[in-house]
Specification:
globular; alpha/beta; two-stranded parallel sheet; D-Maltodextrin-Binding Protein, domain 2
């Protein structure tokens, strides 16, 4: 009987190992924002997910606009983005399914310590943008149709001003390179707090404005519609999405810190 028990246990272990091995070769393609990527969050989360499930996540870091476009083309299995209106349109047009709240942080305005546009003295984000434009200070825009860029364009619309002043620089880059350019030019830029915390030790800039309700920065995870693209790895994408909103996934998001500071707040369970 003992020999049979050992044999059954060995067979079960072999089956488990084979199953795990089979799962390990399955890849999930994720398109996400450069702000998420540069923060280091995925480097923190993915080893845990891959260990738990055997799946491998291949990450493509682009702006939200480009990430959603990859989803529209069926080039990825799911997206993790931060532009609510564009995301709603993505789902309404039938490209995405099962949108889920994931986490949030906020945007901040950073700039030179001298603060020539007196940004720190302004009462709201619209006044901040006006003060930068009217002082003809340097403002470095991502200019890449990312979620950050979409947010910036929305704020310019609120000001009823066109960002065509001499100091406006549209660079078509991700958040990290944009911060580096703002630092080199000693200009202002708008950044998500996560990337700022990842980069600020190397920059001669500081946060000059924060806390406006219009700077709220929510992230969602959305699966690409398998009815439109049946060859995508919908099963793997859903397993990843499900894992992100589990108690473990949400706890890991909350625990992720840089220099002792929390970068994101998990909110999958918020109504």
């Amino acid at each position: 009987m003992k020999a049979i028990t050992v044999a059954l246990a060995t067979a079960s272990l072999s089956l488990f190992c084979y199953s795990a091995s089979a799962e390990e070769v399955q890849h999930v393609r994720l398109a996400t924002t450069t702000s998420t990527y540069h923060s280091g969050l995925l480097d923190y989360l993915l080893p845990e997910f891959e260990q738990d499930t055997g799946y491998k996540v291949d990450v493509v870091a682009a702006g939200t606009g480009k990430s959603l476009k990859m989803g529209e083309n069926g080039d990825v299995d799911l997206v993790m983005t931060h532009a609510p209106k564009a995301e709603a349109n993505f789902v309404e047009q039938g490209f995405g399914v099962l949108p889920r709240k994931l986490m949030y942080n906020d945007f901040v305005i950073v700039g030179p310590h001298a603060d020539p546009a007196k940004v720190a003295q302004q009462k709201d984000i619209a006044e901040v943008f006006k003060s930068i434009a009217t002082s003809d200070s340097t403002f470095v825009s991502r200019g890449d149709d990312s979620g950050t860029h979409k947010k910036e364009k929305g704020i310019w619309q609120q000001t009823q001003m066109e960002p065509n002043f001499a100091g406006y620089r549209s660079v078509g880059q991700g958040m990290g390179p944009t911060l580096n350019m703002a630092n080199e030019m000693q200009g202002y830029t708008m950044t998500d707090r996560g990337t700022w915390l990842a980069y600020n030790n190397t920059l001669d800039l500081e946060i000059l404005f924060e806390g406006d309700k219009n700077l709220f920065n929510p992230y969602q995870v959305i699966l690409v519609n398998p009815q439109r693209y049946p060859r995508i790895n919908y099963q793997g994408a859903k397993i990843f999405s499900d894992w992100l909103v589990t108690a473990k996934g949400q706890q890991l998001i909350n625990e992720f810190k840089l220099n002792g500071k929390q970068l994101f707040v998990a909110n999958a369970n918020e109504l």
